[in-house]
Design goal:
single chain; six-stranded mixed sheet; 14 helices; 26 strands; about 25% strand; globular
């Protein structure tokens, strides 16, 4: 019905879309974290108004055009933390989007919220491997989609990996990717599609393994490998297509009944005109966001780099951990480096700065643990390259790879296994750890504070912020 209405509107406007014989135009983009363009390159990149212009232009040339989003439209960055995906649903309903896979960030605010995003969408969500605890597909979405484009039948498999990196509230279960494919592939093959495409939120190595394991899959649409660069990798003759992050580009793939797909990457930048109605939506949210975040809090004497905290100590991590520890007057505070999400320049530290650093809006919890439990938590993540390394306050720790030893010090004294320690950490970290701690303030406690609010009050109180690396984290690998 929606496709019929779109065609009717084009006819009313004097534009008659063609049905190109034996050709399907697929448009794919991913990681649409915010509605308006990102301004970190000349002319900006991304934005739903640019996306609609490109989509409309190709749909006018071929009725067999299908717009696909790979996932991550809620959470992940400041805009997502503030608006939780609702503006993206509104915009995608207007473009309109045809098909959407889940990203991990759809679950940053819980499985109930992710389900509500699905309910408000006019486009089709799907997932081959995300389930409810009962074993049924999450949010009752289909496990695969087969679309008939006037004689060309295209099947889509949707896969989401690394669900341990988002909020784990027990409302969604990640099935093994290979197992999920093995379950849906016979059903798909029985319907004799011309093409089978996997839409995935996983890394390049995993995509290669999936293509090796399942030669029936013709190619993969996946998440970005690089924030600014789009890529088409190949496993043999089968492409793995990864547009740049923050919907900086859209992949245009032309399929015919037989033969190899044609792949083109279209940048979504200032060279593309902005569709007027969606441009108005972009301007509204940009102004609304800036107005809400303009409050000055303190003077920041040094720039903060979030990437430093992925593999070692960072000034940003020290600042945030100090703020957390001060909030609950605990012995220790922790934050995983990947929970810090933006660079902040020296100068006026605003509410926007605080919320950019901590966009998820996690709740801070207070627990009691032993020295042995603390040591195990630190050691379990010390070699992480994906953001799980802990930034700390109130302690220093040193790890030596040669003998796999980790020592933890408080006030210059070695912490003993039986020591009782109060620790401030966010609900994301607490829900990921298998250890059971005595909770003094849990995430549902009325006293639990939002992480960025704690950082805001810490900045207001101190007026001047000058965090530095102090040897809190030492990793010796030689």
């Amino acid at each position: 019905m929606r496709q019929f209405i779109s065609i009717l509107l084009l006819i009313i406007l004097g534009i008659t879309p063609e049905v190109k014989a034996q050709q399907v135009d697929l448009l794919y983009f991913t990681d649409a974290h915010r509605i308006f363009p990102v301004d970190d390159v000349p002319g900006g990149r991304g934005g739903v108004a640019h996306l609609k212009t490109i989509t409309d232009s190709i749909r006018q040339k071929n009725q067999n055009t299908y717009l696909i989003h790979g996932g991550d439209l809620a959470g992940g960055v400041l805009f997502g933390g503030m608006y939780k995906g609702w503006p993206m649903i509104r915009a995608f309903n207007q473009i309109p989007l045809d098909l959407c896979n889940f990203g991990q960030h759809e679950f940053d605010f819980g499985s109930t919220h992710a389900d509500s995003l699905v309910r408000r969408s006019k486009f089709q969500w799907f997932s081959s491997n995300l389930q409810s605890p009962s074993g049924k597909p999450f949010a009752d979405v289909p496990r695969y989609v087969i679309h008939n484009f006037h004689g060309i039948r295209v099947a889509f498999i949707g896969l989401t990996d690394a669900m341990n990196t988002t909020l784990n509230d027990g409302g969604v279960v990640q099935e093994n990717l290979k197992k999920a494919i093995s379950e849906v592939l016979p059903q798909i093959k029985s319907q004799h599609p011309d093409w089978i495409i996997a839409v995935t939120q996983t890394d390049l190595e995993t995509n290669r393994k999936l293509l090796n394991a399942f030669p029936q899959i013709d190619f993969v649409f996946t998440e970005e490998e690089h924030e600014y660069n789009s890529n088409a990798f190949y496993q043999g003759k089968r492409p793995i297509i990864a547009p740049a992050g923050n919907m900086s580009s859209v992949a245009h793939v032309i399929l015919r009944k037989t033969g190899r797909p044609s792949v083109e990457i279209i940048p979504l930048d200032s060279t593309v005109s902005s569709a007027p109605q969606l441009r108005k939506l972009e301007v509204f949210y940009r102004n609304d966001m800036n107005q809400k975040l303009s409050e000055p809090l303190a003077q920041l004497k040094v720039p903060l780099s979030f990437r430093e905290g992925i593999t070692g100590e960072s000034a940003a991590g020290n600042l945030i951990a100090d703020a957390f520890r001060a909030a609950y007057h605990s012995d220790v505070a922790l934050i995983n480096g990947g929970g810090i999400r933006a660079n902040v320049p020296a100068g006026t530290f605003t509410l926007k700065s605080a919320r950019s650093l901590l966009p998820f809006g996690n709740k801070l919890c207070l627990v009691k643990m032993t020295g042995e439990q603390l040591k195990k938590m630190l050691k379990a993540n010390v070699n992480s390259k994906t953001g799980q390394l802990f930034q700390v306050s109130g302690i220093k720790y040193a790890y030596r790879l040669e003998n796999d030893s980790l020592s933890v010090y408080r006030n210059g004294t070695l912490i003993l296994p039986g020591d009782s320690i109060s620790v401030t950490l966010n609900n994301y970290i607490l829900n990921r750890t298998p250890n059971q701690f005595r909770r003094i303030i849990g995430e549902n406690n009325p006293k639990a504070m939002l992480d960025y609010e704690v950082l805001k009050h810490y900045a207001l109180k101190n007026k001047v912020l000058h965090p530095q690396k102090e040897g809190r984290v030492t990793i010796v690998k030689e």
